[in-house]
């Protein structure tokens, strides 16, 4: 069995401000760093053999905290980046709705049909992310690997794993530093954990 521990990055200021990040390289804020340390502490007892991450700093820094607990370095994989939001990056929901009336609604209802101005489609995101995951899993038979990525990216990975339509991508919630576990038995995936953030509750209790 190969175990894949998939983690979303910690919080950024743009998460707080509800701005669309996409390929914009936005750093973790103080809370995000605290979340990254908390998820790293949670995974410290796991026998992790390798750590991979998107090359955007919010994912890389989160991964770095996890890797440090296992004396590992982070392998950067640009294909694990968030969807490219193009002309929407840096804008809020309200700003996008004002400039592109009617278009943003498709993001939530029919993302499979959405064409983001200057950006990617969800099909393109799914293809590059799923291909990256397949390579990682193939490279680590009988090992446990951590992958740190982004909400939209992880959503498409889970859609691909479950073989469900991309229009359901937002039906799978992904909070900051959420932990998901996918076990591969002879290449067949089984999701054993989704959007688990118990480490954040434990951290706030201290």
Largest sheet: 6 strands, mixed
Derived structural class? alpha/beta
In spatial order, strands of the major sheet run: 3-2-4-1-5-6
H/E element sequence: EHHEHEHHHEHEEH
Text of the CATH class = Alpha Beta
- Determine the fraction of residues in helical runs and give it as a percent range: 25-40%
Distance between the termini: 35 Å
Number of DSSP helical runs: 8
Q: What is the strand content?
A: 15-25%
Per the CATH scheme, the topology name is Rossmann fold
CATH-level-4 superfamily name? Phosphoglycerate mutase-like
**Shape label:** globular
Mean pLDDT, as a whole number? 96
Summed up, the domain count is 1
Radius of gyration: 16 Å
CATH architecture, please? Answer: 3-Layer(aba) Sandwich
Notable characteristics:
globular, 206 residues, 8 helices, 17% strand, alpha/beta, Rossmann fold
Give an account of the 3D structure.
The protein is α/β, with parallel strands linked by helices and 206 residues long. It has one domain (2-205): Phosphoglycerate mutase-like (Rossmann fold), CATH 3.40.50. It contains 8 helices and 6 strands. Helix 2 packs parallel to helix 3 and helix 6 (122-139) crosses helix 7 (151-162). It starts with a strand and ends with a helix.
List the SSEs and their pairings.
Elements: E1 2-8, H1 13-16, H2 30-42, E2 50-53, H3 57-68, E3 74-76, H4 93-99, H5 105-109, H6 122-139, E4 144-149, H7 151-162, E5 179-185, E6 188-196, H8 198-205
Parallel strand pairs: 1-4, 2-3, 2-4
Antiparallel strand pairs: 1-5, 5-6
Helix pairs in contact: 2-3, 6-7
Write a concise synopsis of the structure shown:
The chain has 206 residues and is of the alpha/beta class.
């Amino acid at each position: 069995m190969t175990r894949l521990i998939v983690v979303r990055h910690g919080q950024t200021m743009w998460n707080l401000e509800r701005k669309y990040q996409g390929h914009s390289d936005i750093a973790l804020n103080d809370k995000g760093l605290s979340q990254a340390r908390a998820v790293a502490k949670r995974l410290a007892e796991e026998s992790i053999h390798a750590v991979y991450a998107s090359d955007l700093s919010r994912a890389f820094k989160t991964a770095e905290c996890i890797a440090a607990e296992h004396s590992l370095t982070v392998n950067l994989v640009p294909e694990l980046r968030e969807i490219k939001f193009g002309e929407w990056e840096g804008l809020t929901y309200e700003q996008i709705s004002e400039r592109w009336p009617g278009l943003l609604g498709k993001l939530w209802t029919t993302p499979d049909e959405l064409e983001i101005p200057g950006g990617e489609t969800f099909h393109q995101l799914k293809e590059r992310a799923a291909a990256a995951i397949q390579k990682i899993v193939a490279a680590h038979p009988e090992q446990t690997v951590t992958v740190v990525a982004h909400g939209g990216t992880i959503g498409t990975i889970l859609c691909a794993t479950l073989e469900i339509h991309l229009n359901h991508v937002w039906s799978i919630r992904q909070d900051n530093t959420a932990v998901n576990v996918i076990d591969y038995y002879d290449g067949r995936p089984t999701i054993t954990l989704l959007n688990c953030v118990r480490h954040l509750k434990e951290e706030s209790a201290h």
